[in-house]
Design a protein that fits this description.
67 residues; alpha+beta; Factor Xa Inhibitor; 34% helix
Length: 67
């Protein structure tokens, strides 16, 4: 059987840890920073662990060789 392709959009958006957890960026930080408070911008920095129900979908369909 041939290799499955990883979705290009998923490999830019998600990161998988060594234990198999999926990390994602915070929502609401792509544009429009002028209307957000400094506290909001600061708190949306970095990555956060994705909910397990959503992470299962990402691992199965978008990142087939993640873990």
């Amino acid at each position: 059987m041939t290799k499955m392709k990883t979705k290009s959009s998923a490999k830019k958006r998600f990161k998988v840890t060594a234990t198999g957890k999926v990390l994602r960026a915070h929502a609401g930080k792509r544009h429009g920073m002028i209307k957000r408070t400094n506290k909001q911008i600061r708190n949306k920095r970095g990555m956060v662990v994705m909910a397990e129900a959503d992470a299962r979908i990402v691992r199965k369909h978008q990142l087939p060789y993640a873990t």
